[in-house]
Amino acid sequence: MATSLNRRDWLKSNSLAALALGFSIPSMGMGNEEGMLRSFGMAQGLINLGSNENPYGISPKAKEALLAMVAESHRYQFNVASLSDFEKEIAKYYQVGADQIVATAGSGDALGKLARHFNKGSLVTATPTFATLPNTAKKIGTKVIEVPLTPDKVHDLPAMLRAIDNNTGLVYICNPANPSSTVLSTQALKDFCIEASKKAVIVIDEAYIDFLDDPESKSMISLIDKHPNVIVVRTFSKIHAMAGLRVGFVVGHPAIIRALDENYFTNSQINISNLAAAAALASLQDEAHRASCKQKNAAARSYTFNALKEMNIACVPSHTNFLFFPLGKYPGDFAKDMLAKNVILRSNSYPDGKWGRVSVGTLDEMKQFINILKADWQG
Length: 379
Ligand SMILES: Cc1ncc(COP(=O)(O)O)c(C=O)c1O
Description:
The protein has helices at residues 4-20, 60-69, 86-93, 107-117, 132-139, 157-163, 186-196, 215-218, 254-262, 274-284, 287-310, 334-340, 363-375, and strands spanning 47-48, 101-104, 122-127, 144-148, 168-174, 201-205, 230-235, 248-251, 322-326, 343-344, 346-350, 353-359. Residues 1-28 have low confidence and may be disordered. The protein has 13 helices and 12 strands. Residues 33, 52, 106-108, 130, 174, 178, 205, 207, 235, 237, 243, 248 line the site of pyridoxal-5'-phosphate.
């Protein structure tokens, strides 16, 4: 690592560069990856615990498929035999029809486009939540009704149901939730979707669902056939560790998928690179890699949860690859202060106080994080 003087100089020069790019280092906020410092500074020794990435890397099978696909990178996806069935293969894995899937360049791409597509009527969402869909809605002038999480940091489904009216076009629920890391009871969420989808389109963002046990039994994909207003968004960025490869998809009723495909999702068959598509298909077949990532995540998460508890920091019990914790009386800008100590994470102020969100990195990274935090914790 650079000496502390060099590191200070480096941080200073990069802070200026980042500001020139429109990033705000002090207040990165939470629940949104847009405009966020990502692997910024990794080479200089920063520990990046800010973007809920999977630190264990892509599946060896995905890597092999990706490298093999390099030879076909001069071709469009539809001219590569092994990729012509990309959406069909995804559909087969999730036991839906090929006409129920539309591929996107990461799920963030899907969330932004969904906000644009369903732009008639208001949006009902939680606060805080992952911000891509609500922020896009706000940008295009959609009225956004934000329903606070419960004191336990869970989506307040009864209050969200009450917030839906005849003008509501879209409802967004992130389950498991970002930044709060909580999960809803499967039955409660199903009941909500069934009821709410009588009035509006319900988008369930399942970016972190693979960190749960038996995720498919908890997915809302099972509702789609009977409840055509329910849409599920999934990503390969988290458990599949493919954040940089940009693959996500929307699962919905064929009528909705057709409408999306004809609108903002046009050309979905070529918006993912051949390399990313090949890696995604291979990754789906590597259950063992996913299980190993999940198990290592759970161990590092449990270590961090307990270490924070010993410091009297009571994290919300997490069902994801990040932890959400109250900052108590912390006097300054926590994310900024941690960045100065080589750790990228998030913090924000809410009506009930300041909160931090730290991604679960490797056990070694979490030990470093805890040691750095312990050095002069002021909460
Ligand atoms: C809840 C949630 N949804 C969607 C995304 C977008 O991820 P990607 O665009 O990489 O699929 C993220 C990223 O952190 C997220 O936390």
